[in-house]
Every structure is written in structure tokens, then in C-alpha cells.
UniProtKB/TrEMBL annotation:
It comes from Lysinibacillus mangiferihumi. It comes from the Bacteria. InterPro entries: Metal_resp_DNA-bind_regulator (IPR052509), Tscrpt_reg_PadR_N (IPR005149), WH-like_DNA-bd_sf (IPR036388), WH_DNA-bd_sf (IPR036390). Residues 19-88 form the Transcription regulator PadR N-terminal domain. This is PadR family transcriptional regulator.
Length: 109
């Protein structure tokens, strides 16, 4: 397996938290989320990949979805719920603990 595939697998689990954190800033539509993820230095995502993630986040009540007309077209927008905000907070605490542990192993703490 090449390094790019390894990075993709590693980062795959972080897509949800990144999406939820972006939605904490503002309500967004799917393509907008994809575009922002693509512009990041960390994530690479294909155009259609975001929708199964959004569907899963919606099904778990971490995200609400609503439709609105924009320039004559109906667009689905996503916003984070209180449950989603709590998940972000918990996941960030977990990540902090993991980073702290790695630093301890490396002898940085």
C-alpha cells in the first residue's frame, strides 16, 4: 500500500469531525463542504463522497438538513445540532488525549 492510501485510511475517520466543525462555523451545502475540504492541506475528497457522510451524520441526529431555493434551484443545506456539537467536543478531547500520549511516548512532555 502506498503512502497516499495510508494517509487516506488514516484521515477517513476524521472527515466527520472536520465536517461537523465546519458546520459549527456556518450552515453549508454539500458542494461547499467538499470544496472547503479539498482546499485544506489535510483532506482530499471526491465530489460524491461527502453525501454518504452527511447522510450518516443526519441519520445519527448530529446534523439537520433543510432545503432552500438558490438562484432558481433547490439546494440542501446542513447545520449542526446540539448533539453534533457535543460529539465534536468529546472527539476533540479524545484527540487531545491521543496527542498527549504520543508526545509522552516521544519524550516531549
Amino acid at each position: 500500500m502506498d503512502n497516499k492510501n495510508n494517509n487516506t485510511q488514516y484521515l477517513k475517520g476524521l472527515f466527520e469531525i472536520a465536517i461537523l466543525m465546519m458546520l459549527q462555523k456556518k450552515t453549508m451545502y454539500g458542494y461547499e463542504l467538499t470544496k472547503e475540504l479539498k482546499e485544506s492541506k489535510c483532506f482530499s475528497i471526491s465530489d460524491g463522497s461527502i453525501y454518504p457522510i452527511l447522510k450518516r451524520l443526519t441519520a445519527n441526529d448530529y446534523v439537520d438538513v433543510f432545503s432552500e431555493e438558490y438562484e432558481g434551484r433547490i439546494r440542501k443545506y446542513y447545520r449542526i445540532t446540539d448533539l453534533g456539537k457535543a460529539l465534536v467536543e468529546n472527539r476533540l478531547k479524545e484527540l487531545d488525549s491521543i496527542i498527549k500520549y504520543f508526545k509522552e511516548i516521544k519524550g516531549m512532555d
